[in-house]
Each structure stands twice: as C-alpha cells, then as structure tokens.
Amino acid sequence: MSAYHCPVLLKEVIEGLNVKNLSGGTFFDGTCGGGNHAYAVLESNPAVRLVATDKDGEAIAESQKRLAPFAERFQIFRSDYKNYAEVLDRAGVESLDGFLLDLGISSHQIDTEERGFAYTKPDAPLDMRMDTRQKRDAKEIVNTYSEEALKRLLWEYGEESYARSIAANIVKEREKQTIATCGQLNAIVEKSVPPKYRYAACARKTFQAIRIEVNEELGGLGECVEGLVKRLKKGGRGCVITFHSLEDRIVKQVFRDLCTGCTCPKNFPVCVCGRKEQGKPVGKQPVTAGEEELRENSRSKSAKLRIIEKIT
Description:
7-stranded mixed β-sheet, 13 helices, 40% helix, 14% strand
C-alpha cells in the first residue's frame, strides 16, 4: 500500500462497488489521491477499466507511479471530480458500472507542512489549496474577507460556536500584521475561545471552514453525485465517503431523493407526479470503520461510507 495516503474503508469500498462479481465494466474514481482505492479496484478484477481525476498535481504523480502495472486499463486527469462529464467524454465513456468519491483531504496533504492544511504545524504557510494552480489560498481569505464574511464562513462551514469572536480577533490581528502562518491563525482561535472550553484541537473547525472555502468543496457536490448516479448502468453502484456532517448531509439527501418514487397523495387513484425511484440504498446505515482500522488509522474515525445501487 502506498505511504502517500492511508485509505479508509478500503475493503468496504471494494465490496460496496461489487467489483469482483462483474464480467467487466468501467469505474470512475473522482478523488484518486495516492491511488490506493483505484489500485484495489483494478487488482480485484482484471476485466475492469478505471477513469480517475484529482486536482492535486502531487497526487497525480503518485497515482501514475502506483497504478503503472495497470497502465492499459487506467486513465487519470488533473481535474475536479465535478467536471466528471467532460472527463468521461474525453475518456470515451458514456455509462459507468460504479463510482467512488472519497471526500476531504489526504494524509499526505495534512502531513506536508508547506501545503498549509494543519493547525498542528505552526510554521506552515496558510495555503490549503488542493490545486496549487489556483490563485486564491487560505492566506488571502483570512486577510481580505470582511468580519461578517468570516463569521458566516466559520459558522456555516465549520459549525463553530465562537465564530463571532474568532472573526473579530482575526480582523484585529491582521490590522497589526499579515496573518501568514498556520501558527498565527491557531493562536488567534485559541485566544478567541473561553479558557474553560479551550482544548488542543479547538482550531480544527476554523481550519476546516477555511479549507472548504478555498477549495469550494461543497458547491456543486449534490449535483455531481446525482449526475454520477444517473450515469450508472442498472445494477451499478456509487460509493461516497464523507468526513464531516456538512458533506454527509448533502450526500444523504441526494441519495434519499434518488431512492424516492411517487410522491402523490395516497388517496390519488393513479400517479400524476411521474416520479420513479432511480436507486436503492445498500445497507440501512452508512458504513463506518471497524475497531482494527480505528486502531491503525485514527483519521478513519469520522469516515462514513454511503452506497447506492442503480435500479432503473
């Protein structure tokens, strides 16, 4: 397994996609990262093909190395998974037998100091860009957004109870000097939280909120998941791994809508809404990490895997 990124729920994803039981087909991995999930898909069935995307140039390079043994059955594009329609067109793919979205950030991104994702690395630059080609980074957001915009951002994307005081203190601090490092932002957050509620990871929500804004992680997520499900062949499956309640709520609602049929009142003699179920959930509850995986990879604790199967 690649040291670049420790994948979560690997066995559960392969089972969820039903890869081994297919006579062939095409899969889409929208967040390829270090290529571990993709490797498992391709290794599980020599008759399947995989098309992948990732925004991170370092991830692309790692995936190409990792998946070199499957070069004839694998293509990767440097693109946002939300551009799946364009990517699949370029790859000559119309329909899918399965897809995977492993949302959030990779172990490599967190652990690489110069990427500026972690509040635990005080000297790291405030960056947080998954795609280093884009101009806007965390430093720009922290130093240019209005106090009101920062408060809204921290509340909506971080579900941060102290969004008001953190935003106010960010604005006060940047009037003295530019906030340029993860350590500076972490110190501001700690100062903004009352001592009795202060703990080692109290900046986690703030960093999450800013990272989501930098990378526009939630915008278009629901539409993308719905579009990918519609690309599935009958019996095809979609797997989505989420790491926080905001993205999980979006995925849960999309799956629920796609698995809902006629919504006409029960007293109607015939259906007039024309709505038909497009999928069915696989499992009543999202899949979470078992005890062994939790021991080996603490970052799997917040992971939830939801699976849908196309029925029409």
